[in-house]
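Recall that a protein's primary structure is simply its ordered list of amino acids. Everything else, from secondary elements to tertiary packing, is in principle encoded there. The following example makes that idea concrete.
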Amino acid sequence: MKDSLRLKTSVGTCLILALFFFFLGYYIIDSQKKLLEENLYEHGKNIASLTARSCAEYLPRFSYFLIEDLALSVEKSSQVAFCEIYDQDGMPILQSGNIVYQNRKTKNTAHYDNNIMVVAHPIINGKENLGRVEIGLTLDQVRQDIKTKTIDLVIILIGCMLCTILALDAFFRKILISPLSILDNNTRKIANREFVTANVGSRMDEIGRLALNFNYMSKNLESLYKNLEVKVQERTHDLEAANEKLVISIARSEAMAVEAEKGAVAKSQFLAAMSHEIRTPMNAILGMADILADSGLDGEQQRFLEVLQESGETLLHLINDILDLSKIEAGQVAFEHEEIDLDHLIGRAFKVTSLAGHSKGLELAYSIKRNVPTRVIGDPARLMQIFVNLLGNAIKFTERGFVVLEISLSEGRSSELGNKIGLHFEIKDSGIGIETDKLDSIFDRFTQEDSSTTRQYGGTGLGLSICKSLCEAMTGRIWMESTKGFGSSVHIDIPFATNDVVYNRDSILNDQSILLINDQNYSRESLAVRLSAISRKVDKAHNFEVGKSLISEAAKGSIPYDLIIIRDNIHGWKWKKTVSSLVELGIDEKKIIIFANVEHHHIRDAFEGHVLLKPLTIFDLEKVVKEIDLTSNTECKPKPSIATVNASTKSLNILLIEDNKANCLLIELFLKDLPHLLTITNNGQEGLDERTKNAFDVILMDIEMPIMDGYEATMRIREWEIEHQEKPAKIIALTAHALSEVKDKILTAGCDCFLTKPISKEKIITTISTLL
C-alpha cells in the first residue's frame, strides 16, 4: 500500500493544500489583526485629542481638579488603561495620588507592556505648547477578537481543504490512477504469459496513446513468444549437441595435458640423460688433454692440444647453459642466501673473462659507489653466472676501448623493496652496439642481432636469456641501452637483503698508505674509491712526475707509502724504467705492485715485486700485503697445509667403481704419481663384493652403471659397514648429472660428497685431501 500511486498522489495533494491554506489563513489573520489595531489606535487618538483640547482650557487657569475629573472620566472606558498629562518640560502634571484628596477616587497607575498601546497628543493653546496627553489603550479586546476569528477561519479552511482533496482524488483516480492500474495489472499478466489488452475508453491523450501502444506491444510479444518457443527448442537441441562436443574436447584437453606433463617429465629425463651421456666422454677428453699438456709436447702438438681443450670447454659451457635454461623454465632453480663480498665477486668475474679483453688491449675496470654496502645477502654463484655472461659478451663484441662495470643504489625503488636494498649494476662497453629496434628481442633464446654475428663472434644466444631469467627469478629486472656503432649498456636492478649489523671490514689494508700511479682515468679513480673505503691513506697520480712529487712529500712527512701500485705502461714509460725510478727514490722493490694484462711472465721473471692482472681487487691486494709481511718476517714462514702433506705423503687404499674404460684410465693416470693403491671394478655389484673383502680409505663411485647403479651400491655398502661395525669409507660420487635433485639423491644414498664430470686432477686430489 505504501507504494500505491493513489496514496502518493493524495499525500502530495494534502501537503500542497495544507501549505497553501496555511499561508492563506496566516495572511487573513494578520490582516484582521492590523485592521483591529488600526481601529483601536484611531479611537485612542480621538480620545487623546479631546482630552488635549480640554486640558488646553484648564491648564492656564490652574484648574487641576477639573483635569483630574477629566482623566478619571477617560479611564472609565473599558479600552483605556490609563490617562497621563505632562507639562511642556515633560514633568507629570497629573499622576495617581498626587493631587487627589483622600476622600476622592484614585486614578489608574500608568504601566507600559506588550498589552498596552500608547497614544500621545500635544496640548496646544493658541500657538503655545503646554504639554502632552498620553492615553494607554489595552489590547485584550483586540486579541480576543483575533482568537475568535482565527478559530473560525481554521475550521473553514480545513473544511475547504478536505473538500478539495476529495475532489482532486476523484479527478486523478478517473483520469490517471484507474487507467494506470489497468495497465499495471495487464503488465503482470503479460509477465505470466497472458497476453491481454487494456481498455481505457476512447481517450486520445497520453494515457490513451499509452494504452494503444501497450496493446500493440502485447500482440507483438505474443507472436514473438510463440516464435521464440520454436527457436528455443531448436537452440536447445543445438546446445545439447555442442555440449557433447565440449565434453569430448575437455576429455581430449585433459588427455593432452597428461601428455604434456609426460612430455615435460620426458624432457627433464632426456636432458639429464644427455647431460650424463655427454659429460661422461667429455670427462675423459678434457682429462686426457690435461695429462697430455704435462707430457712435454712440441709447439705444434701444444697448439693442437689447446684447440682440443678450447673446443671441449666450449661444448661443456653449452651443455651448462641448456641445463640452466631448462631448470629455470621448470622453476627448479633454488637460490642460496649467503653473504656476498661484492668487490671480491666482481673481481673474480673479471678474472674469468679478462683473457680475451687483455689480448685486445681493452681497459677493464669496475667501480663501487661509496654508499653501496660492502656485503649483501644473496646467491653468489648465480650472481657470478650473470656477470660472467654479461662481461664475456661485452668483451666479445668490443674490439677496442673499454668494458667497465659500475655498482650504485637503485633509484626510486625504496618504497617497494621493504627491508631490502636495491643495487643497480651497469655494464658499459665501447663495442659494436645494437640496432634500437632489436633491443627488445636481444634477450630471447637463441637470438643474436643477425646471422653474421653468430658467424663472426660465435655463441648460441643463450647467455642473455639465462641472465634475464635469473634476474627475474631473483625479483629483479634487466634491460639494455645501445646505439649501433657506439657501444652498449646493460642495466640490472636486483634487491638484496643486508645484515642488521653494520659490517666494518677488518683488512690488512686498514693501516696501509697507498700510492696509485695510472694514466687510465677510469681505472685509477674507481680503484682509488674502493681503496679509500678501507685504507688509511690513498693518493693517486696520472703520471710518474706527479707520483714522484707525492713520494717526496710523503718521505718528508710522518706517513711514507707502504705500497706503490703502478701500471705496466705509463705514457710510454716501460715498467722497468718506472720501477728503477721508484727504487732510486728509496722505494723497496718488494713493495711495488705492477698491474698488467695476461702477458706478464717476462715481468715476473725480472721483478722482485708482485704482478697482478687487471682489474685489481681488494682481495688480490690483501694477499700481496700478507706475502710482503711474511717474507719480511723470517720467523713466520708459511707452513704446508695438512691436506697437502697428507696428499703427498700418506698412502691411501682407493676403490674406483666405474663402467667407462676411458674414465678408469683417466683416474689411473691422475693418481699414478701419488703413493696411493688403486683398485678398479666395472659395476656396482663388483664394487660391493670388493668392499666386503677388503678395507678401503676412499671409494670413487660412479652413479650410472649396469647391473647395480651407484645409489644402490652406496646404500648396500653403508648397510654392510653398519652390520659388521666396519669403519665407514669416504665415498665420493662421480656423476655426469648437474640437476639438483640428482645431487640430493646422491647425498641421501650415503655418499660423503660428489664431483660433477668432467673432473680435473686437481679437483679430485683436493677433494680426497679435504675428506681425510
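The chain has a mean pLDDT of 79. Residues 206-293 form the longest helix (88 residues).
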